[in-house]
Amino acid sequence: MNVMSVEHIQKKSPVKKECEDAFILNEEASIYGVLDGATPLVCFEDESRHNGAYLAAQIFKNKMEQLKGGEGLSKAVEDANLHLKEEMERYAVQTDLGEERWSTCVAVVKVMDDHIHYVQLGDSMVLVEGEDGKFTVVTTDSVKGISERAKQKRAEGRKGGEEIPPESYYDIRMNKLRYNRRLANVEGGYTVANGMPEVMDYLDQGVIDRKGIQSLLLISDGLFHPELTLEETYARIREAGLETYVDELTDHLHKHSLHIDDRTAVWIKLK
């Protein structure tokens, strides 16, 4: 087995009722991941009082943790996404409205003898550390800049004669968030697992050569530091450890009155 050790951390946001992140530790199949359920804009809860963000992340966690060695990650994403769609239908969720859908970001890797396969959606990220000590971001944060792209899309729509409210309407946070959620898995929008078949068209997936890689870091956006790049974040985690980094980040966010999200990471050290 190529994996020497796996560390993980998960801390709930102080402003949330339950943690909407999840992590995957399927050691039998060498599959590891981080999932970040998107905080709902509606007040749905199931009979166990779980919201759509929690449920979406757990559906993907359960699927990935049940995988055996021979199954591919992209097929697993497709199956989990279909199950997510079926569960929303079972609860009569209005899936024609983007803000009603349950959704989760995805960052999952499968460590093989000579390569590493990854799948990713949203802003949960996959990073690698080379044996040369260089840190590299493998995946793309498709959520970054979504509000600016949304504003541009509205401007273009108005030019084209569409009836779209003035920008002052979208200065109201909930209106802006609702609009943004409707840009999931469309051109110029962002990617997320939310039961839409288009998820598979936008899935970021690839293969990394195992040679020269000494560790992998999977993080939800709750580990993003407002003053560090992701490469610098990884370097700090390597230097201080996951627990210390998360404590430092949380203190920094608290001190500057910034939002503290759920914070989840899986750190895989390879032989």
UniProtKB/TrEMBL annotation:
Residues 3-270 form the PPM-type phosphatase domain. SUPFAM superfamilies: PP2C-like (SSF81606). This is Serine/threonine protein phosphatase. It comes from Halobacillus litoralis.
